[in-house]
Amino acid sequence: MRRPVIAGNWKMHKTVQESINAAIGLKRKFYTFAEADIVICPPFTSLSKVSDQIMDSSIMLGAQDLYWEEEGAFTGEISPNMLKDAGCRYVIVGHSERRNIFGETDDDVNKKLKVALRHGMVPIMCIGERLEERDSGMTLEILEKQLARGLRDVAKDEAVRIVIAYEPIWAIGTGRTATPQQAQEAHRFIREFIERSYDREAFSKIRIQYGGSVKPENIAQLMAQEDIDGALVGGASLDVNSFAEIVKNAVL
Ligand code: PGA
Question: Is the separation of the CB atoms in 88 and 121 below 8 Å?
């Protein structure tokens, strides 16, 4: 059985104090919680304060990005050591906003994944197609390319620790969710790619999240699909009550 993983990506939202308040709110609801891994990904400035709040609870901390060097003259970047020092166990890699707004490539994603794994963090590797790619029937081809390049030279024992997030770009922040069937088809394809690249054990172990306009109302149907193991939640994770409802409905 794969353990569900529900992650909240706060993106560029919340001051330090707002982050602390949200963390306290979530901790009240999920101080102990056995049914799923719960991860919150605040902005960098809030990481260590949020870590102080959730440290002794079942909620885990994640970052939204990292750089692949350990230290040096890389103005504006954050290293894996710094993230671990701030209490992060997870890190999002290759979010579509990083790819589309900041020009991140599959090669960058590959370097970031490897450094996160080397430092014992769990990378959440985001992949997904644009609307025009879906409309022209290229979805699976795009996913295959992102997976092949992103996972290049990642050994099986490391690959199985990665969480893959399938996030169709047209569903992110648009209110337009993929249907459970569309999501399931993509997730199955991803799992089969993992089997082809590694083996049957990796196929069964790898956790694949869906992301894109996940809400309390649609999470249960998504989670009911065989190959959907969790969600990466943006907008609906900003509010403590809606994120808490998503977590609860995910494990019903
Ligand atoms: P959304 O964002 O839930 O606001 O659509 C998802 C994401 O970007 O991970």
Answer: yes
User: Rounded distance, CA 77 to CA 64, Å?
Assistant: 12
Q: What is the pTM of this model?
A: 0.98
Contacts of 252 (CB under 8 A, 6+ apart): 220
167 classed as catalytic = yes
The superfamily CATH assigns to domain 5-250 is Aldolase class I (3.20.20.70)
Question: Quick check: 113 and 107 in contact, CB under 8 A?
Answer: no
Ligand 1 centroid–CA 72 distance in Å is 32
pLDDT value, residue 96? 97
Beta bridge partners of 90: 62, 122
What is the mean pLDDT, run by run of 10 residues, along the chain of 252 residues? 96 98 98 97 98 97 98 98 98 98 98 98 98 96 98 98 97 91 98 98 98 97 98 98 98 94
Q: Which of 214, 218, 222, 242 to mutate to test the pocket of ligand 1 (most atoms within 8 A of CB)?
A: 214
